Amino acid sequence: MTAPNQSQIHPTPPARHYVPRLAALSATLTVALWFACGGPARLTSPHYRHWKLPDGDTVEILTQNNEYSVAYQVEGRVVAHHYFLIQFRSTLKDAARDKRDVRGILEVVCAMADSLGYRRINIQPTKASFFDFVKYGLDHWATVDSGGHCRQDGGS
User: What is the DSSP string of 21-42?
Assistant: First the structure.
């Protein structure tokens, strides 16, 4: 009988692969948490902020915020703006409808904006992409006069 060599007495343990197991466990927990919080239904759930306009149309409001912006101009001036921002869902393919909706939104919010002290309103027909993470729209500015009347300054 031959004597066993050193590698037969103490075999090296097999390499353990923790990284794939940890990644699989993390992915499973992430998916389980996502389903517990609403899952795929949450990605397509509508915002329950629909405004009925005076012309009978309905728009879905994505954002309505009190906005401040500051810009430094080439002449060395600092210009600050305070305005009310409203973004509503649009395909941006029907410009006539978007302008009608902007006028309707102005009729709805103009008196309220005056009572809250806003002098400018920015209404944006907005197209949202990538589950509403990316939004782009067109600016339609209006000036709020005293007495709750709005004068539209134009739009892009």
Answer: HHHHHHHHHHHHHHHHTTHHHH
